[in-house]
Design a protein that fits this description.
The chain is α/β, with parallel strands linked by helices. The protein folds into two domains: about 10-50 and about 320-480, Aspartate Aminotransferase, domain 1, CATH 3.90.1150.10; about 55-320, Aspartate Aminotransferase, domain 2. The chain contains 16 helices and 21 strands. The strands form seven sheets. Strands 4-12-11-10-9-5-6 form a seven-stranded mixed beta sheet, with helices on both faces. A four-stranded antiparallel beta sheet has the order 15-16-19-18. Helix 5 (about 140-145) links the parallel strand 5 and strand 6 (about 150-155). Helix 1 packs across helix 9, helix 3 (about 75-90) packs across helix 9 (about 305-320) and helix 11 (about 370-385) packs across helix 14. The radius of gyration is 24 Å and the shape is globular.
Length: about 500
């Protein structure tokens, strides 16, 4: 079976994948003394590993060898499967292999974006401006600031019906018109890692291409949730130039970051990283680089196991059908939003009308009068619900949404109350969903928040706020060493 000859999606396969992930049934002892299965709502930070990924890696491990050689059996096998992993990536994002390549880099999107920023600055030096949005994760902001110092323009998000929604397309058009041929590329998140709001990446591509600018898509919060159509769109102007995402967010923790790019954007110049595997020949006074992709962009011994795990996940998701995955997740997000909206004292960030702003993956919120860190701690300690809090490496976007909520409430609150809310809500709580998430998980979150609202004073008395902003229970302690430690695991194996 090759990546180019894959069977059609299957609902039965989707059901099988949804019910099996490593750690889905993990139990912990709570502050109440009871043991309860965890509800994992932190997928946007890092997804649980699919069981099929673990099984694939277990089957591969006896044959593991380094790549870059085909003269012994293990090396033949590893080299073949590693090459297939690249082809699987291109198939997954619908990128024509004649014009696009995929290469692996680092441990996530950050390494890929840094590589893209440096390369495109070197490739198109006459274009010295990058346009991005206020919505971006730091990994799709800081690399461009470093490579284009002082010349990164942040476009705001638009106000939809009741709150902030997708990137402001009118302002984006104005920005592109203002900077014109100075714009090297527009770089935009396909899905906000904070709110889950989906941006119209093909519409943005069409707009950027009018000015000869490229479109770079941060698909870190998108790849696991929505189908991606990099090339082959009805209008070629809608095609994407570069797509970057993280393997650990696509149900394959331990996998590398991925860059999918038009070959011509990286061809003809020295790769940003050099070393073994990407050279044709080396002498004491010179070296010759490979011209072939992806080898020229992957210096050193690659993360072979990580790439194979990622390919297994992408292939399984394809077999399940990304269109169906997206449709079911949209229904789940809408269901969760409806439940959360019924809770008194809950602030949901970002436009909640799904007909205006589709969402995928995440919902961020606060409870009035309670700091986000306290809410996250209570959800964990008393309800075994895993969520994330603070600003999710998207500080400007989080600040803008919190400020927008406060501005809407100015007429109803005194200056003292507004100041107190601003001090409390310097971050948010984020619940994020994955392929294994269910309506029961959403119900558990809503019920837990209902209890926290009703018993807020009681819960506050049980916690101490640490100087860094985290909260620790006054009497309950979790000792991770009782469940797992590297040293303990190795000692037990050696002494068995």
């Amino acid at each position: 079976m090759t990546a180019d000859a894959m069977p059609a999606p299957s609902h039965d396969i989707l059901a099988k994948i949804k019910s099996s992930a490593v750690g889905l049934d993990t139990e912990y002892e709570l502050a109440t003394g009871e043991r309860r299965r965890r509800v994992y709502l932190d997928t946007t930070a890092s997804a649980l590993r699919l069981s099929v990924v673990q099984d694939t890696l277990d089957h591969f491990q006896p044959y593991y060898s380094n790549t870059h050689s085909v003269l012994h059996f293990g090396a033949k096998l590893s080299t073949s499967e590693y090459a297939w992993a690249h082809r699987m990536v291109l198939d997954f994002v619908n990128a024509d292999p004649e014009h696009y390549t995929a290469f692996f880099v680092g441990s996530g999107t950050t390494g890929g974006m840094n590589r893209v920023a440096r390369t495109l600055r070197q490739k198109r030096p006459e274009r010295d401006v990058v346009v991005t949005s206020i919505m971006e994760h730091h990994s799709n902001d800081l690399p461009h600031r470093k490579s284009f110092p002082g010349n990164v323009v942040h476009v705001p998000a638009e106000f939809a019906k009741s709150s902030i929604g997708r990137v402001n397309m009118e302002r984006l058009a104005e920005t592109l018109a203002e900077y014109g041929e100075r714009v090297n590329y527009v770089t935009i998140t396909g899905v906000s890692n904070v709110t889950g709001i989906i941006n119209p990446i093909h519409e943005i591509a069409r707009l950027a291409h009018r000015y000869g600018a490229l479109l770079v898509v941060d698909a870190a919060a998108m790849a696991a949730h929505l189908p991606i159509h990099t090339s082959g769109n009805a209008d070629p102007a809608d095609d994407l130039d570069v797509v970057v995402f993280s393997g650990h967010k696509v149900y394959a923790p331990g996998s590398p970051g991925v860059v999918v790019t038009r070959k011509d954007l990286f061809a003809g110049q020295e790769p940003q990283e050099v070393g073994g595997g990407m050279v044709e020949d080396v002498y004491t006074n010179r070296y010759t680089m490979l011209a072939s992709f992806p080898d020229r962009e992957e210096a050193g011994t690659p993360n072979i196991c990580g790439a194979i795990g990622l390919a297994a996940s992408l292939y399984a998701l394809h077999r399940a059908g990304m269109e169906q995955i997206a449709a079911e997740e949209c229904e789940l997000i809408t269901y969760a939003l409806e439940g959360l909206a019924r809770l008194d004292g809950l602030i949901i960030y970002g436009e909640t009308d799904s007909s205006l702003c589709r969402r995928a993956g995440a919902i961020s919120f606060n409870i009035r009068g309670l700091e986000h860190g306290l809410v996250a701690a209570i959800l964990n300690d008393y309800f075994n619900i895993s969520v994330r809090n603070e600003c999710f490496c998207a500080h400007p976007y989080v600040r803008e949404m919190i400020t927008e909520v406060l501005a809407q409430e100015e007429d109803d609150l005194s200056d003292e109350e507004i100041e107190a809310m601003a001090d409390l809500h310097r971050g948010m709580v984020r619940a994020s969903f994955g392929i294994y998430s269910t309506r029961a998980d959403a119900d558990a979150l809503v019920e837990a928040l209902r209890q926290i609202v009703a018993r807020s004073s009681e819960f506050q008395d049980l916690y101490t706020r640490l100087p860094g902003g985290d909260y620790v229970h006054k009497s309950f302690r979790f000792d991770p060493d009782t469940l797992f430690s590297v040293r303990g695991t190795v000692d037990r194996w050696l002494e068995a």
